[in-house]
Design a protein that fits this description.
single chain, about 500 residues, Rossmann fold, six-stranded antiparallel β-barrel
């Protein structure tokens, strides 16, 4: 990924404004905008950008067609309703209109270039210099040499065919047999398969573009690693994350962070600001305090330092290792919640077995993703828990929360979030080898108070319990509100990861 941010643009994107600098002495702690209470939840008066640091997905539509000429007493045309230049021009104009509207309504950043019309493979060569992420091929006609040439441009490719939406496209008949399988019984295209073919419905295009947008903004993503990158029972996890996603991991040693904290504590103005921000947070509504105000103040202090570190490296994500012993006495749990709720990404334990899935799903759905521990599936239910759950799980409003201590240490500040009952969740469970992820969906049925990590969510799974038990892999899970299993599966396959989705 290209990190072409200048410092001024980065700070604007970060949402800190002129009041926040990069030094302990001058920076403030406020990142939250004014909020209002709506439906029992806190909703920002001004919508937050929950995909900070993201770049637009650029799409190049390509209309592939051929002009047929009558030949007496023999076959002269293939299937399809685009057989003339006039029909092709009319279809290209329609494509432009539909794609512009699709981009306008999309919930992520996507831009469509003007359609290009091609009738032979020689014309494809002109596309080599176009800066685009995705070739969206409207396969009305033409032959396999054109599709092969387009596939050879080394871009993501989606093939769209019309059936009932008309005019009928030739490649509705032959895309599987002639292109994907190349006249054999096996898939023969190295970078395109049947998942890349959409039929009739613009929504079929949109969800694929959403997946590729998420992948584009995951590849090469820079992340601050307090204590360095790691992997739960998997030392090779950082190396695999680099191989699959090109993640750029910036190590900040724990002693360096501890020194930053100690220096910050000696700044009365900064500590006063963090105290005010903590009080404001506690007083916004639907927040119950069951730990000390001092712990909340220090959570805001650590948030400020983490944002400084991200700003310094022009990163939008942070992860922590070695935090069970605290950072100069601060447990980072509430800090990670605050960062996730601001549109950045923050994950515990430095676990790069699961972190890539969280970054990917974050940019796909535009919502925080929750790294957590699973429990044993039983009678169709699973409980997931950690001490760092986001509150803004729908990307808009803050769920009610009780601020408690971190469980294992009974110290600091962590969240017991009242996750929304009835809400559909996506659950991603990556394997240790970065080859096969498991994807589940389920419905939230409760937020229990078991003696475990504080933010607990009980989920009624959509999959059969026995099937889940047989296919569990890795350890940590990543959760998000909504069903994004098809997007995650589609995007992960582009980097060599197969996603097994279990549903009833």
């Amino acid at each position: 990924m290209n990190h072409n941010f200048n410092r001024r643009d980065f700070m604007r994107t970060l949402g800190l404004g002129a009041a926040v600098g990069l030094t302990v002495a001058t920076a403030g702690c406020s990142l939250q905008r004014d909020a209002t209470l709506a439906g029992g939840r806190i909703r920002d008066a001004q919508a937050l950008n929950m995909r900070l640091g993201a770049k637009q997905l650029v799409v190049q539509p390509v209309l592939m067609y051929n002009v047929s000429h009558r030949r007496e007493r023999r076959s002269w045309r293939n299937w399809g309703g685009v057989q003339t230049e006039e029909a092709a021009k009319k279809e290209a104009a329609r494509i432009a209109r539909e794609l512009n509207e699709l981009c306008r309504l999309a919930d992520f950043g996507v831009r469509a270039l003007p359609p290009v019309m091609v009738t032979n493979k020689q014309q494809v060569s002109t596309l080599k210099t176009i800066e685009t992420d995705v070739l969206l091929v409207y396969a009305a006609g033409g032959w396999t040499d054109i599709l092969n040439a387009l596939a050879g441009l080394d871009k993501w490719m989606i093939i769209f065919v019309r059936k009932h939406s008309k005019p009928y496209y030739l490649w509705d008949e032959i895309v599987h047999s002639r292109f994907l399988r190349s006249h054999t019984d096996n898939l023969s295209q190295p970078s395109v398969d049947f998942n890349d073919v959409a039929v009739d419905d613009d929504e079929e295009i949109l969800w694929r573009l959403r997946a590729l947008y998420g992948l584009k903004n995951t590849l090469g993503r820079r992340i601050i690693c307090i204590g360095g990158p790691g992997g739960w029972s998997c030392p090779k996890a950082p190396e695999l994350a680099r191989e699959r996603f090109g993640l750029d991991m910036v190590t900040v040693p724990i002693p360096e962070l501890n020194s930053m904290i100690e220096a910050a504590r000696k700044n009365p103005e900064l500590m006063a600001r963090c105290n005010r921000e903590g009080k404001k947070y506690l007083n916004k509504g639907r927040v119950t305090l069951s730990t000390t105000e001092e712990a909340v103040t220090e959570a805001f202090l650590l948030r400020k330092l983490f944002h400084d570190l991200m700003a310094k490296s022009e990163a939008f994500a942070v992860t922590v290792r070695g935090c069970m012993g605290s950072y100069a006495g601060i447990m980072p749990c509430l800090t990670l919640t605050l960062i996730n709720d601001s549109g950045h990404m923050a994950y515990c334990e430095g676990d790069f077995v699961v972190i890539p899935s969280g970054i990917l799903m974050h940019y796909i759905c535009g919502k925080p993703t929750y790294l957590c521990n699973p429990t044993y599936p039983h009678k169709g239910h699973m409980v997931f828990a950690h001490c760092t759950a986001p509150r803004r799980m729908d990307g808009k409003s803050l769920e009610p929360v009780e601020i408690v201590t971190h469980y294992e240490s009974d110290h600091g500040a962590a969240t017991h979030v009242a996750f929304r009952k009835g809400q559909i969740l996506t659950i991603i469970k990556p394997d240790f080898g970065a080859k096969n992820w498991l994807a589940l969906t389920g419905k939230i049925v409760g937020t229990p108070w078991l003696p475990t990590c504080r933010a607990q969510v009980e989920v009624e799974l959509d999959a059969d319990t026995h099937d889940v038990l047989q296919n569990l892999r890795g350890f940590h899970c990543m959760l998000a509100y909504g069903d994004y299993t098809r997007e995650v599966s589609y995007a992960a396959k582009k980097v060599g990861i197969t996603v097994q989705t279990l549903k009833s």
